[in-house]
Amino acid sequence: xxxxxxxxxxxxxxxxxxxxxxxxxEGVSERTRAKVQEAMDRLEYYPSAAAQSLRGKETGLVSLxxxxxxxxPDAFEIVAGIQSVCEKRGKLLLIGETGGSQESFQKLVEDxxxxxxxxxxxxxxxxxxxxIKQSFERCPLxxxxxxxxxSRYPCIIPDDxxxxxxxxxxxxxxxxxxxxxxxxxxxxxxTSLRVRGHLRALEKHGIEVDPNLIxxxxxxxxQDEFAGLEALLKELLKGPKAPTAILCGxxxxxxxxxxxxxxxxxxxxxxxxxxxxxxxxMIAENLVPKLTTxxxxxxxxxxxxxxxxxxxxxEKEKGKRNKRKNNHTIKIGGDLIVRGSTGxx
Length: 345
What we know:
single chain, 345 residues, 434 Repressor (Amino-terminal Domain), Rossmann fold, 3 domains, 6-stranded mixed β-sheet, 12 helices, 12 strands, 39% helix
């Protein structure tokens, strides 16, 4: 590995001159700068980020730690949003994945701190609560798609309550009054929030709540989380009080509802309207008819997390940091994307 001394020897200048150039000092001719740059290129020499940080210069590094995010297609836009801001702002994004291991999280935090990262973003595959045992007084931590148990750190989460409200409002506007909601697991924060939005929309329109129409559409089966969905739908859709529309916890569930509903003889949306959640485009745009769904604003969430990571420390140094509390929560709403799976009743 080349050193600053090797660069100086190849360029025919002193180590002090190379150091002055690397640190942005004036008083060095353009000819000398060009010689040093040429030597650095030939030797593939890059100044140490940690050393630059010790000299008071920002390293330009933003770190992202995820649980399973990089291998999850429908959540990868979080990474894309962060990367887009880093590219615009001239920052390098470092990514590490824990695989759900607390030990791996600790190691990645330590590694990124050694690199003198400006901030660390921790992003999860789905909206959930996390436990942060480390202290982040000097290297800021931004939570993305999650929140900590003690509310010590700023977090960016999707507005799941508004999403549940918007989906229900859409169906009510089409004349549906019997709307079933097949939720994700009850312990997931998104579930209670979306149900709250659903109930708020029903109340707004004076629709009486039937608790039998709100039930989990997922099952504790390691091989198939929708294993009991067919039997559930058969029971739900029989009788004169059957729902005319179904809200699904995600687009994968909606795809299975499509399949079972068609097998039961229903025409979508003529006899049964279906709404998904996530806007997982590989599913939503390839179902027939295409799926009406609520998007998760992952790209925008990633963008905002990167902006907080980059601007937060700088604002603190300048004494201009805003007065927001550490437990500041930012909710970003998704969009209702109307396609062909919903129709007027």
